[in-house]
Amino acid sequence: MKYYIILLFLSLSLTTFAQEVTKEGKVYEVKNEKIFLEGVDVTETLKLEERTLIFKEAALISDKMKLAEEAKLKAEQEKKEAEKVKKEEEKAKKQAEKLKKEEEKALEEKEELAEKLEKENKKAEKAQKKAEKEQKKAEKAIKKEEKLQSNFEKAESNLEKAQKKYEKLKRKGKLSPVDENKWMDKIEKLTEKVTKAKRKL
User: Fold this and answer.
1) Separation between Cα atoms, residue 120 and residue 114, nearest integer Å
2) pLDDT digits (tens, 9 = 90+) for 141-189
């Protein structure tokens, strides 16, 4: 639309301006359907044939000027369009580069996150293994303590039984000096066992 408005304005301006036509060494000016020679209107003094030739030549000059202006305008328009396209291409290129950088950054962040998660998983696994090891160690220690307690109680029970039996046999007078020595050795050994089991606890 803008292009056509400029073209219309140009054609109007060309018709209002004078066209110079050279004929037989004389320079004529054609303006508003009138022919001037050195500023004087000579339209009516010229022969019809001469007038027609001068008007035709003026029209040709006018057409040439129009065509030249049109070509110039078209070239300018094409130049502007080319610049616009170039700017749009540059803009698209910049956007593509920006998008590429953002994608690279996102990928980098994703990789970093994956690496971090992997490290955390390994750390968690290690901690879990350590906890399991500690639990097993604690269970083993409890079992050992229970066994020691059981051994102590058993040793204590055996000592108590042996002492009671010895006292009973002694009271009834059924012990010979040899038997008494045997019983004393047995009680001594059992007492040592109790002491050992207690120390281990």
Assistant:
1) 10
2) 999 889 888 988 888 898 899 889 888 888 888 878 888 888 889 889 9
Position 80, amino acid: K
> What pTM was estimated for this model as a whole?
0.40
User: What secondary structure letter does DSSP report for 17?
Assistant: S
**Pair of tokens at residue 142:** 């409890």
Q: Which residue has the tokens 């078209």?
A: 74
β-pairing, 40-41 with 34-37? antiparallel
Interatomic CA distance for residues 68 and 14, integer angstroms: 12
**Percent of the chain predicted with pLDDT > 90:** 40
Through-space distance between the first and last CA atoms of the chain, rounded to whole angstroms: 107
- Report the 10 Å Cβ neighbour count for 161: 11
What would the pLDDT profile of 186-201 be if each residue is shown by its tens digit? 889 989 988 988 888 7
**Calpha distance 178→167 (Å, rounded):** 16
Q: Token digits for 26?
A: 């004389």
Dihedrals phi, psi of 37, to nearest 5 degrees:
-125, 115
